[in-house]
Prior knowledge:
Blueprint: E1 2-3, E2 6-7, H1 14-21, H2 29-60, H3 65-79, H4 83-87, H5 90-102, E3 109-113, E4 118-119, E5 125-126, E6 131-134, H6 136-140, H7 160-164
Antiparallel strand pairs: 1-2, 3-6, 4-5
Amino acid sequence: MLYKGKALRKTDDLISWLVEGAPPEHRNVEDITAKVMLINFAAIHTTSITTTNALFNLAARQEYIGPLRAEIEEVTRAYGWTKESMARLRKLDSFMKESSRLSGIVGLSMSRKAEKDFTFSNGLTIPAGYTVAVASEGIHTDPVGNLRGPTHVQRLQGSARAEMQAQILRSPIL
């Protein structure tokens, strides 16, 4: 990429990806800035809301503070503050998952717009242009579907099996 006639050093970051991926007519400060702001909004507000809800849930269920603190101290003492140490925080991961289940960011998920009329085998038709979604909040707080009750916080998982399951911090970015 050139800036004022001089070649710039190739970098591997978000802005470079956006510039390289944009059509030439959109390789300008305004368009790239708008994309960065949109990505930041999506990343920051969801993380902030999830963290805030977890803190509210922790304040409401203070019996989890001790076990979580003990796990964090033990793991960080042994491994420091690293990606590896974050993946070993099984109880914290379990608490965050339960907090997200009980206090999700949105009530609906996986929304899709029908491009053409669609008729199910039972005769129900979704007309073209209509949007359908999954009632995720309703599913996560359904008293019938949750054997322990919709607001029951399941015990903190600390087993090796819990580590085998998908964790929030399994991202290659971290």
